[in-house]
């Protein structure tokens, strides 16, 4: 039975598509959960700072400390610009992207 549905390429393509759909549904679920938590007041961080554009050009480790001090409900993670990173949305994470000199290259934002 070497039909279309048993070929390795088709199985791989279907598996990749299912993973992509699952990741997108997880992202939507997390965003919806965050909205519901904020609307009904279950979450304290809804009124807290969510973006730090003023940190662009500053030291990444200092930026991380500032973010975690200004919003105690998030954990900041310093990442080298261009390196692979997870793309799922997390309301308790801030990715701080830095260049080779350790300087922040874009505004850190919750997500």
Features:
Trypsin Inhibitor V, Chain A; 2 domains
Walk me through what this model shows.
- It is a single chain.
- The protein has helices spanning 8-39, 60-70, and strands at 75-80, 93-98.
- With 111 residues, the protein is of the alpha+beta class.
- A two-stranded parallel ribbon has the order 1-2.
- The longest helix is centred in the first third of the chain and has 32 residues, at 8-39.
- The protein is flat, with a radius of gyration of 19 Å.
- Belongs to the protease inhibitor I13 (potato type I serine protease inhibitor) family.
- One of its GO terms (molecular function) is serine-type endopeptidase inhibitor activity.
- Keywords: Protease inhibitor, Serine protease inhibitor.
- One of its GO terms (biological process) is response to wounding.
Instruction: Please state the average pLDDT score.
Output: 79
Structural class: alpha+beta
Largest beta-sheet characterization: 2 strands, parallel
- Helix-strand pattern: HHEE
In short:
The protein is an alpha+beta fold and 111 residues long. It has 2 domains: 1-42; 47-111, Trypsin Inhibitor V, subunit A (Trypsin Inhibitor V, Chain A, 2-Layer Sandwich). Helices cover 39% and strands 11% of the residues.
Walk me through the topology.
Blueprint: H1 8-39, H2 60-70, E1 75-80, E2 93-98
Parallel strand pairs: 1-2
């Amino acid at each position: 039975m070497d039909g279309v549905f048993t070929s390795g390429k088709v199985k791989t393509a279907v598996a990749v598509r299912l993973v992509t759909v699952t990741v997108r549904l997880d992202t939507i679920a997390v965003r919806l959960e965050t909205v519901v938590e904020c609307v009904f007041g279950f979450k304290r961080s809804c009124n807290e700072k969510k973006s730090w554009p003023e940190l662009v050009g500053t030291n990444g480790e200092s930026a991380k400390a500032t973010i975690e001090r200004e919003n105690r409900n998030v954990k900041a993670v310093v990442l080298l610009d261009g390196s692979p990173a997870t793309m799922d949305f997390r309301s308790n994470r801030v990715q701080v992207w830095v260049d080779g000199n350790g300087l922040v290259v874009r505004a850190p934002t919750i997500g």
